[in-house]
Design goal:
The chain is an all-alpha fold. It has 2 helices and no strands. It comes from Hamadaea flava.
């Protein structure tokens, strides 16, 4: 008999409140009042087009923040997850 197996990770244990931030890049582009205009233009692009790019930046930023705040500290030191 060897050492007992380490406990299995809890699948429901990843319920950080930081995950709620992921709602922002989903909901914000669904609000038509934000992009139902032509002005202001940015570098000659109407609002609709440059705002789509801004939504991408918003999604990447939000995902990065949630990842950084919810990653497990043991993963950086070579531990399990």
């Amino acid at each position: 008999m060897g050492e007992p197996a380490p406990p299995a990770p809890d699948p429901a244990g990843d319920r950080s409140p930081w995950n709620w931030l992921l709602i922002i890049p989903i909901v914000v582009p669904l609000i038509p009042a934000l992009f139902n205009a032509i002005e202001p233009k940015l570098f000659g692009f109407p609002l609709f087009y440059w705002l789509q790019l801004a939504f991408i930046v918003l999604g990447v930023t939000t995902t990065t923040v949630v990842y950084q705040m919810t990653k497990r500290r043991g993963a950086a030191s070579g531990g399990d997850r």
